[in-house]
């Protein structure tokens, strides 16, 4: 009996979203996923008595995908190609090629050369006039026929979203025509001239589309009306493929940098998996240099400009200020279901990381067949840390941590939260402090503490902030507040000491002491965020040898605290996590039915006792066994079982 329909939803529809910092390897993952020969190009592991269980799991995953028909390549949707689709739709509405060239170049240079040194790397009409008037214009003119054909597909009295409801047209445009080649050539021309300006250009129009629904520069709108403009276009392309081909839908999106777009796909598709691509900082920066050098650019300032833009897209300052149209790669990584780490060189003698190819093989095998293998030991403990962070009452960021000994025996679990017998920030209402309600929740300092330099108390300052806030927008929620942020603002400082919460790693390590200390020298720390300087010092002092983390924590803990030992071999090793976590952990490792039952159904492999052996349980008399056995002759297996049950019941009744 085949169970094809059992897994049809997984096999017929899967979307993988990629995210990661600039140079982290997203395109490398996308390239492997779309490669028809990816599995055939891999060398299967040789398993012997010295192989680890993880080697065996990867061999099982490989053999499964290598079986005929199990590896199905993915279609790649390149995010910047979707941006170009929007740009072309808005810029070729005119009748003449001259109008198109003017509108496209006007959009390309709409920001001009900024006086801000941080964002001056943009296309400018004057500074880049030679390139625009020659190479770029020549490229557009050479593609006049394609642009005319592109234009003919659209009704410009309707919006792009309305046009994309025509699934047949979308399929012809995106999959049957030369749109992808045009995109590749378009970006090749821009990259060859200046990759930094090209990168800034796509960064800018993505902002405008998410903020205002257009590639044209306008004052950025803080409302969320257009936040899913690009995501909706991607969804239309996926739908067009499904309707027109009737083939399995397998797409990889390269790459997503806005966490609200990720939530859009997670809410819309249950078979959506978000994957983070990571490298060491040195390897990532080298990848940026190599990409720049590929187009003949070797200026160190170009690399600095790219890394600055990368920092801008990674950090979440704009996002925290309500500018949700901005990239927030840090949040994107936190929302990922699976983490792939691409190491420059795998060290066979002291192997800390699984190869990039093995990670990808395991992911795809588990998507296709959940529960095919069990989690790695590192995945298991990181999932415990991940689940524990939900207990955190911190309103800024939730972090979970697990401490084990050298043999992976859990000694403590912790999350960032206030000390015992205090009320977490997530349960405290600023309005209650102002109005004198639930006073037990607040400290003496908050209620009637010493005045600041201007003679005003914390409570009075907080009351002024509260009165100026639009608390009516909370729609019934309590108004939580972060004491550290308020106190630092009132003092004009930025001091982490004033936080009410213990850090997750700190909390876990203190639990060991609180309930009877046990040695953890040589042990391991699993944390959903890499430890800060203070927690790193504690881990170092306790003899923690390996620290596994998902999300880098800002600061100098790695380069200063953890690498400061006189004997380098005693320094704790910081290891970026590889594998599934969170929702993805359960989706990938929870089988639809038990493997034993599934194998029995598929193969009929279910050992059955012979009737002669069963009769021995009824009587020890051989002659009586032989006499009873004659009654079973000529009967089917089910009839034999029914007759045996009757004999057994009669004996039990007696």
TrEMBL record:
Record keyword Hydrolase present: yes
Entry superkingdom: Bacteria
Domain CMP/dCMP-type deaminase: residue ranges: 376-578
PROSITE patterns associated with the record: CYT_DCMP_DEAMINASES_2
Signal peptide region: none
Sorted UniProt keywords: Hydrolase
Any one cellular-component term (Gene Ontology): cytoplasm
InterPro entries found in the cross-reference section: CMP_dCMP_dom (IPR002125), Cytidine_deaminase-like (IPR016193), dCMP_deaminase-rel (IPR015517), P-loop_NTPase (IPR027417)
One example GO MF annotation: dCMP deaminase activity
Keyword presence, Ribonucleoprotein: no
Protein name: CMP/dCMP-type deaminase domain-containing protein
Organism: Pedobacter chitinilyticus
